[in-house]
Amino acid sequence: MQTGIAERQTAGLRGSGGTRPVLYAWYALFVLILVYTLNFIDRQILAILAQEVKQDLALSDAQLGFLYGTAFAIFYSLFGIPLGRLADNWRRGYLLAIGLALWSVMTIISGLSHSFPQLAAARIGVGIGEASATPAAFAMIAGYFSKEYRGLALSIYAVGAYLGLGLSLPLGGWISDSWNAAFPVGEAPFGLDGWQAAFVIVGAPGILLALWAATLREPMVSEGNERRILPFGLALRAFGKDMLTILPPFTLWSVARYPGELGKNVIAFCLSGLICYGLIEWTGDVAQWIALSIGYYATYSWRQVLRHNDRAAFHLIWEDGVMILALLGFGAIALITYSAGFWAAPYAIRTFGMSATFAGMAIGIPGAIAAAMGIITGGRLSDFWKARDGRGRVWTCLVSVVGAPPLILLMYTRPDLETYLLLSPLVYFITALPGGVCAAVCQDLVLPRMYGTVGAVYLLSTTMMGLAVGPYLTGKIAMISGSLSVGVMSMLVATPIALVALGLLSRRTADAEATKDVRALEAELRRARLGGGRA
């Protein structure tokens, strides 16, 4: 391995222990925030355009939920697994830049779509591109900032998500309404409607930002351990092997190399197929359940391979049980957050007769400010609390779990616009509290070399449980009940799941963090005694 002079210099990007981060760490964090902001603008702009897309393409609410959630989330979460592993092995700045360029191009292609299948394919492409961003960014931040500042740094980074969420609404609504007002039907450039122009315009800047992101220097030391970057060829080969573990039917070949795993994989494949068939027969939504069943089957296949390739990571993430509680709790939080967040603007437009421009301004800007305040507050609170109690980060998440449901219930049941607009930023604030804290909790429970992988697994839980299910189920229940507010409020059934999972996690997290090195070593030793090494 060759390490350049610039890379060796970055070994001191942050001090060890509790020393304050150096200026370059804050500069890099600023660039990462810009990338994350654009990430969410491109991802969330569909929310403000949903009503126009629905009318133009003759879609149902369930199909809208699929486009926003499942089509994006399944491939976002699945590709996040090999890309997260690649972030642990290769240059993270380059990986971030490539992903940014890809999802920006696919956002532009979204604006050129004229049918549900075309738009769904473009949303899949956006998901694949964005899958590289957060695992790479999480791992870079963990290298730039010491443990004592990591909760704050990750929370500041997560501000980008809420800035993007807030900006996407007024920006998308204004572009769409202005375009439609400027060009009569049939006379617009390239025949684009307002919603299509919005996709094209917000996607273009990402290509330039990708060039900037590629210049970020690599943090070479994390918690006293020097990081090893593989040459491009070796990193690409490892990435290809990881890809084969999540893409059917190559998954069968991947697991067949390990004794006893092929039969389990075939059973999992058949079981997922039977469940998928039953859900399609019950709901009539083919694309939703095929995509979701592929996602869960691919996750199981990758888990099988990880058990043999990296026993320590498998033990800390999947086998020990502590991380499972975290992923279950965070996934339940995401189910509520994604549902309430996506449908806020469509609900206001339908219920109160607002224009897309006004809805974006009245909901998006106050929501972005409130969410940014919430996520920074959550990060600072979690760092302060954890310094005094090992359960502090988890308790911060529980504050959001307890506080969000009553506000959401009021927001979606009050009949007047004024109360709705008053409650909306409060909901954004309280649901944003754990935004950066959840990732910090996951990083606390694994070794530094696993940060990219655990970042991908964290996104897997929040997208597969939250984004791929919440918006779709909300739309489906809204279709059945005839009420979008009923659809949103029905997602609050996830609250008890989050309370129980995080309550149990709080009882184990301090001990799990203190013993992670020992438990990882014991897992590797057990693996060695059984006669296997890392593949």
Strand content: under 5%
Question: What spatial form do the alpha-carbon principal axes imply?
Answer: globular
Q: Could you say how many structural domains there are in total?
A: 1
Low-confidence stretches: 1-18
CATH superfamily: MFS general substrate transporter like domains
Instruction: Assign a percent range to the helix content.
Output: over 70%
Radius of gyration computed on alpha carbons: 22 Å
Question: How widely separated are the two ends?
Answer: 20 Å
Q: What is the total tally of β strands?
A: 2
Structural class: mainly alpha
Provide the CATH architecture: Up-down Bundle
Instruction: Provide the succession of SSEs.
Output: HHHHHHHHHEEHHHHHHHHHHHHHHH
Number of helices: 24
Please identify the top-level CATH class: Mainly Alpha
CATH topology: Growth Hormone, Chain: A
Task: Describe the structure in your own words.
By secondary structure, the chain is mainly α. It has one domain: MFS general substrate transporter like domains (Growth Hormone, Chain: A, Up-down Bundle), CATH 1.20.1250. 79% of the residues lie in helices and 1% in strands. It has a two-stranded antiparallel ribbon. Helix 2 runs antiparallel to helix 8, helix 15 crosses helix 21 and helix 17 runs antiparallel to helix 23. It is globular and about 70 Å long. The chain starts with a helix and ends in a 6-residue tail after the last helix.
